[in-house]
Design a protein that fits this description.
This protein is an alpha/beta fold. It has 2 domains: 157 residues, NAD(P)-binding Rossmann-like Domain (Rossmann fold, 3-Layer(aba) Sandwich), CATH 3.40.50; 94 residues, ProC C-terminal domain-like (ProC C-terminal domain-like fold). Helices cover 55% and strands 13% of the residues. It is built from 12 helices and 8 strands. Strands 3-2-1-4-5-6-7-8 form an 8-stranded mixed β-sheet, sandwiched between helices. α7 packs across α12. It is elongated, with a radius of gyration of 21 Å. The two termini are 31 Å apart. The structure holds NADP nicotinamide-adenine-dinucleotide phosphate. The site of NADP nicotinamide-adenine-dinucleotide phosphate (NAP) has 27 residues, from α1 and α4.
């Protein structure tokens, strides 16, 4: 499968590494275009893929063109490559807030997939919600699905409106979890645990809890009740979290990210 990446930053590299690791494409079938020469050199050295700083040249002959630039660089990239893509070339965009309408009009090309993955692609554990324009054929959808499956879990939705919500939940979500991890480690250090021990037990607590929630299929409240003895230590801590507005604060944070994602789409 011939792939072109426009943008070889954190996400572009994570995706190309997954694709290579899972054998979906050979290094000789991948071209990355980026404005940063140091990024291109590193990607070429590390993955033996082809590189260029010419976005148009990268798109030539690619089955899938992956747009992995920041939202603020989208309009200039669209202006640069508008009108050069031909069917059955497929564009796959991971750009927060960039709507299918913005992408199809900006590209002058109708076969577009919009995806919201996350940074856990770096370890093959991303979850990606994706949608496609009506012109994307079932064959192209299968190609998109197999590419996204290399990153972790992929979920298709015919409803584009869910993509901005997904941006606020699984796109930004790892940052919320990293903040929680950092805070819990700091709290453990505050009560006297050595940082190394604190870090080890916090990370495994998060991993183990997520695994239990996923594998048991139980409601999180039921699992929380299993940890909370009447009059016990967990109940004391949960009271402080509720008093501090933990749930409401998280809801407001996710709402703010969602509003921002929709706002990005409207400014295009
Ligand atoms: N990071 C995440 O966790 C995450 C998760 C889900 C979705 N996304 C989406 O993924 C996209 C990429 O994010 P990222 O974190 O990978 O960003 P990033 O690390 O900044 O990568 C973007 C790359 O594109 C390059 N670039 C800028 N202008 C360009 C141009 N005109 N042509 C070609 N390359 C250009 C940048 O170079 P310079 O740095 O020199 O400008 C940079 O190397 C964003 O739109 C974001 O919304 C990110």
């Amino acid at each position: 499968m011939k792939l072109a990446f426009i943008g070889g930053g954190a996400m572009g590299e994570a995706i190309l590494a997954c694709v290579l690791n899972k054998g979906l494409a050979l290094p000789t079938e991948i071209t990355v275009s980026d404005v940063s020469q140091s990024i291109l050199k590193r990607l070429k050295d590390q993955h033996s893929i082809a590189t260029t700083s010419d976005n148009k040249a990268a798109c030539e002959g690619a089955s899938i063109v992956i747009l992995a630039i920041k939202p603020q660089n989208l309009s200039s990239v669209l202006a640069e490559i508008k009108g050069i893509l031909i069917e059955p070339q497929l564009v796959l965009s991971i750009i927060a807030g960039a709507t299918l309408s913005t992408l199809t009009h900006g590209l002058g090309h109708n076969c577009v997939v919009r995806v919201m993955p996350n940074i856990a692609a770096k370890v093959g554990e991303a979850v990606s919600l994706w949608t496609a324009t009506p012109q994307v054929t079932s064959q192209q959808k299968e190609a998109a699905r197999s590419l996204l499956a290399t990153l972790g879990t992929e979920i298709y939705t015919p409803e584009e409106k869910y993509l901005d919500m997904s941006t606020a939940v699984n796109g930004s979500g790892p940052a919320y979890v990293f903040l929680f991890i950092e805070s819990l480690i700091d709290a453990a250090v505050h009560i006297g645990l050595p940082r190394e021990i604190a870090s080890g037990i916090v990370l495994q607590t998060i991993l183990g809890s997520a695994k239990l929630a996923k594998e048991s299929g139980l409601h999180p409240a039921e699992l929380k009740n299993q940890v909370t003895s009447p009059g016990g230590t967990t109940a004391e801590a949960l009271l402080r979290l509720e008093e501090g507005g933990f749930r409401a604060l998280l809801t407001k944070a996710v709402q703010a990210a969602y509003d921002k994602s929709r706002g990005l789409g409207q400014t295009k």
